[in-house]
Amino acid sequence: LFSSGLDEMIALICRTFLEVGDESLQPWPTYPEYQLQAAIAGATTVNAAVTPATGLIDLDDLAAHITAKTKVIWLCNPNNPTGTYLPISQIAQFMKRVPADVLVVVDEAYIDFVADVPNPSALSLVTQFNNLLVMRTFSKLYGLANFRVGFSIVPQRVIAKMQNVRLPYNISGISQTAALAAWQDQAFTQTVKQQLLTARQQWSAFFEANHIQHYASQTNFMLYQVADPQALGAFLKQHGYLVRDSMVPGWIRQSFGTPAQDAEMRQLLL
Ligand SMILES: Cc1ncc(COP(=O)(O)O)c(C=O)c1O
């Protein structure tokens, strides 16, 4: 099922499956749109934990927060903003603890950036669990954020319900053409991914060498701890670099740039 970016998909899921009295459950911190759209649909949003030492979503805590009112669980993998990735075997184990009438949404917006994992996607679980949905977007590795193309692999059981709610003309022909062209140019995306992996290794080495607390990222950004994020954010902005300085208190989320930009930023951070 296609949508005008994943933000429309998130709104569509909330509109289809949530109403007043329901609970929408997610780890925190995660992508804030789940909370926002669930609240707009009238549901109560419930937060479970991310392990502070590793930034990994705590699946035991997530399972512990399921109640009779839980209707949707959001699992961003890799997670934004921590950048951390959970192996699919752990998600499969988690699914066994989720009641069959609760929909689990695995948001794989950043899955294309995962390295050194043979089959990183939860796609294969959609045929095993008919309450699991996987979301993907053309906004990240494919660089088409402004064309607004997202899609979900949806279990047969719920697809008709979502199709009923989806706006009939949600993606333009131009966006479809752009997405198809990008999808077919895998040589280009592999080049981009290689550049990204080099940047990630360099940032990782930089944070290690300078003893800056950070999480192991499997994405195109990193979350790192600083004494005063707002002051550092303002300083970087003066030099032309925009970072997220108020997403997680005490931490900065920063995307990777070109090699020259990254080198300049590292100088600024020292
Ligand atoms: C985890 C995650 N999911 C979904 C989205 C929405 O992506 P889009 O609506 O551009 O497809 C984003 C965008 O930043 C994101 O970080």
From TrEMBL:
Any one GO molecular-function label of the UniProt entry: transaminase activity
UniProt entry keywords in alphabetical sequence: Amino-acid biosynthesis, Aminotransferase, Histidine biosynthesis, Pyridoxal phosphate, Transferase
Membrane-traversing stretches: none
Gene3D superfamilies, per the entry: Aspartate Aminotransferase, domain 1 (3.90.1150.10), Type I PLP-dependent aspartate aminotransferase-like (Major domain) (3.40.640.10)
Keyword Amino-acid biosynthesis in record: yes
Superkingdom: Bacteria
UniProt entry tagged with the keyword Nuclease: no
Signal sequence bounds: none
Stored SUPFAM superfamilies: PLP-dependent transferases (SSF53383)
Database matches in InterPro entries: Aminotransferase_I/II_large, HistidinolP_aminotransfase, PyrdxlP-dep_Trfase, PyrdxlP-dep_Trfase_major, PyrdxlP-dep_Trfase_small
A single BP term in Gene Ontology: L-histidine biosynthetic process
Residue ranges occupied by any Aminotransferase class I/classII large domain in the UniProt entry: 1-263
The protein, known as: Histidinol-phosphate aminotransferase
Organism: Lacticaseibacillus paracasei subsp. paracasei Lpp126
